[in-house]
Amino acid sequence: xxxxxxxxxxxxxxxxxTLKKEAIIQFxxxxxxxxxxxxxxxxxxxxxxxxxxxxDLKIWVLEITGIPDWLLVESYAAVGDxxxxxxxxxxxxxxxxxxxxxxxxxxxxxLQHASIEEKKSFVLSSWNAxxxxxRFIFNKLLGGNFRIGxxxxxxxxxxxxxxxxxxxxxxxxxxxxxxxxxxxxxKLIKGEYSDTYLSKPYPFCLAYPIEKELEQLGLVQExxxxxxxxxxxxxxxxxxxxxxxxxxxxxxxxxxxxxxTAALAQWKENMVLDGExxxxxxxxxxxxxxxxxxxxxxxxxxxxxxxxxxxxxxYDILELEREDLRPLPLQQRRHILAxxxxxxxxxxxxxxxxxxxxxxxxxxxxxxxxxxxxxxGIMLKKKDSIYDVGRKKGNWWKWKVNPMTLDAVLIYAQxxxxxxxxxxxxxxxxxxxxxxxxxxxxxxxxxTDKEIIEVSRFVRQNSLEKFGPVRTVRxxxxxxxxxEGIGYSKRHKSGVALRFPRxxxxxxxxxxxxxxxxxxxxKLIQ
Length: 526
Fold this sequence. Notes:
This protein is α+β, with helices and mostly antiparallel strands. It is 36% helix and 25% strand. Strand 8 (310-320) and strand 9 form a beta hairpin. The N and C termini lie far apart (52 Å). The relative contact order is 0.09.
């Protein structure tokens, strides 16, 4: 654990990529085989489920320290992270532990089946043998929400350079299902297990936001042009009769879409397809908020399938009868995909429709009206492009429509975490519903550091109530909120939900009388 704690400290204390890489290499040089596997597992989201409730951890800290509950709440508000707060409040350890990261992970995994008394005994003895940083990491691991301060791409590039392995091989190898108890680290990253699991997906090929004038892209006829749909991007895998649907977030979501699984089962071929899952009814694509009702449900009833039917728009084919088609030009892959769809004739699986403008000016007009059909904009893909790993600038571009906006007033604020833990950076905004204010969105980004300091000062001077770390503030500050989509939602007091809300700008020229009304906002819903 000490080696791992040293790594996490180094990753969190610097924003420089070179220093982060050096810290990872140092860890890999000294860590055990099992610790390296667990590091990779944690980095790719393969962590044990939450084994102990947060409320129990807080109760035990209060018992050990003897501090009142209100002081813990205030400490949490100041620190901004509960795991770190608990680690800081505990008294110095009386013992030492030499257990490795893998030993801790195995003990935490076993906890899921332990009694509450056994869990408490384990946690208290562990806290008594760990220093503050190690306790922080331990608390994070217990909570099942551990994050490491480096991007997946940064990790892959570091592994590729250090071990002299192609980055594509590493990405493909660590993506998907694997268990740190059953694999060897170097064999895993070298791809020696890649063909042993039928469920293995490919890394997604992604697009960059367009940053050129359209005319600089050459002839419009050189590009495959499609709408950018707001659904769930997925890979649809059928190998040897087994079917898997992977989301872009590397989750298997097959059970959430039984009608898609049934349609894939009718296909005669083994293949890996890339496409978008969309809520689709009566000939039109529904708002994303409708599709959300199907996500993360354990049981998808027949009534829900009828209420919110789905359809897949297929973009690409990556594999056919175990042959990797990604090196082929997009135009050729598209032809193969079109023939397969025609041959299998499953209405649930359709070829994504193409847009064929005669010139760039015509495409600008099409892009401007994309939101009318619940599209986010336009995708441009070079017809001769291969299916790359991740993003490669120049071959695929996404051209999103301008975001929708509304004016809202700040009513709640909460301190951030990490380097922003001293400032209020998490905001809740409201709009008018008659004479009342109703919450419409939360946002965490969009202000400069200077503006954050100014807003934090306002919050401290104008707080009305405290709810743990949250402060209710006088409804005075007005902000312009940008968002990508809007739909009805029973989970929100306003009855609507915004997609990807963020602060566009602080409207110091407006007062609360100028903010938007709920009736007007609902008119934006298609």
